[in-house]
Amino acid sequence: MKRAASALRSHRAASNPSVAAAEALLRPPRPPRGQHLLANVRVLDDIVRHAGIRPGDAVVEVGPGTGNLTVRLLASPAATVAAVEIDPRMSRAVTARSAALGLAHKLTVITGDAMRVEFPKFDACVANIPYGISSPLVAKLLFGPHQFRTATLVVQREFARRLAAAPGDREFNRLAENARLVADVRLLADVSREDFVPVPGVDSALVEIVPKEVRPSEVAPGVPTDEWLAFVCLCFQQHNRRDKRKQEKTIGTVFKPDEMVVELLRRSSRAEQRDGNNGGSVVTVHGDNDDEASSRFSKEEVVAFKESIVGAVQSPGLAHKRLSTVSNNELLRLLRMFIERGVRFQ
Ligand SMILES: C[S@@+](CC[C@H](N)C(=O)[O-])C[C@H]1O[C@@H](n2cnc3c(N)ncnc32)[C@H](O)[C@@H]1O
Fold it and tell me: How far does the centroid of ligand 1 lie from the alpha carbon of residue 36, in Å?
């Protein structure tokens, strides 16, 4: 720990590595994938302090970039840091930087899309996230399967306000409503756009997400909370994905693709095996693992299941509604339709 801290101090004393690295990797006018690197040392240190990392913690960082935050996480009492980065150039940069500091043994870099990669088990998530995936990433943390103590995230300020909004606030919205079910969300500090290289067009804020220890068992009569959270997570993940004509997805288009049908068929079969056959329309699959299971669905089974999905979407008349305009109550109604037809999300 002492060795790590002194390595970091001497590294800081050298020329500003964040700016140099950013200039080497990013070309103006607009960096790809929201690559605005946090370059204010005071803010970076504040983030790690707020994160309250404990000895032995496993930390996940999304989007390490050139490693400005990562090196501080590595120098903290954390036992391990797993950094998920989509850009291989950045992965190489952060790997080299941690090696130069003698901290590579604590770091695992996973090169991939944070929305597709399965996170390893973690206690704390600390990140200056790519703002383009704010909603689905926060949904993945809040409503996904991960059990963690805290998440400390730099996000766009407007998003932070919406996420932390309370009932009665002007910004109160579906994301905040669902977040409050499962976590306490707190706005910790504003972060100026001037603290980034290159300077983005928006301001930022630091937020803290602390999952609640006890979740309600049902969000509404007949709707188990875990089922609801998995359903909401899937909807939020699709919310930012636009179709080819740059239109926001409708409920109908979200559940239409064959890969989505197969994914739900897989989950539903698993749920049916778990709960015991309830006479629904779901087929029983005898596979040892998920890949094996999904490869065993016949074309007829997939087509029949697709019909169940289409029927569920059409019966509450939501097929043409855009995801952003659907209320929580409408989504609840839709989820009940799905469950009645044996379409499960957990
Ligand atoms: C805002 S920068 C933050 C960089 C660094 N944490 C810092 O503060 O200096 C976001 C980083 O996320 C990466 N990124 C963008 N989209 C991503 C995704 N879907 N999954 C993982 N990383 C992503 C970018 O390549 C970039 O390095």
Answer: 8
State the closest ligand 1 atom to the C-alpha of 133, by its place in the atom list counted from 1.
19
Per-residue pLDDT of the chain (346 residues; tens, 9 = 90+): 445 545 444 444 344 555 565 555 555 445 567 799 999 999 999 999 999 999 999 999 999 999 999 999 999 999 999 999 999 999 999 999 999 999 999 999 999 999 999 999 999 999 999 999 999 999 999 988 899 999 999 999 999 999 999 888 887 788 888 899 899 999 999 999 999 999 999 999 999 999 998 888 888 888 888 899 889 888 877 766 666 666 778 888 888 888 888 889 988 888 888 776 554 444 443 334 444 444 578 888 888 888 989 888 888 788 888 887 888 888 899 999 999 888 998 8
What's the ipTM?
A: 0.99
What is the CATH code of the structural domain delimited by 2-211?
A: 3.40.50.150
The answer to whether the predicted template modeling score (pTM) of the entire model surpasses 0.80 is no
CATH architecture assignment, domain 218-340: Orthogonal Bundle (1.10)
Q: What are the structural domain ranges in the chain? A: 2-211, 218-340
Q: Whose Cα sits closest to atom 6 in ligand 1?
A: 64
Q: Does residue 258 have a known ligand-binding role? A: no
Of ligand 1's listed atoms, the one at least distance from the Cα of 90 is: 27
Alpha-carbon separation of residue 65 from 25, 61, 62, 335 (angstroms): 10, 10, 9, 38
Same fold, 2-211 and 218-340: no
Residue 261: half-sphere exposure toward Cβ, Cα within 13 Å: 21
How far is residue 35's CA from residue 274's CA, in Å, rounded to a whole number? 43
Task: Pick the atom of ligand 1 nearest to 65's CA.
Answer: 27
Was 128 annotated as part of a binding site?
Answer: yes
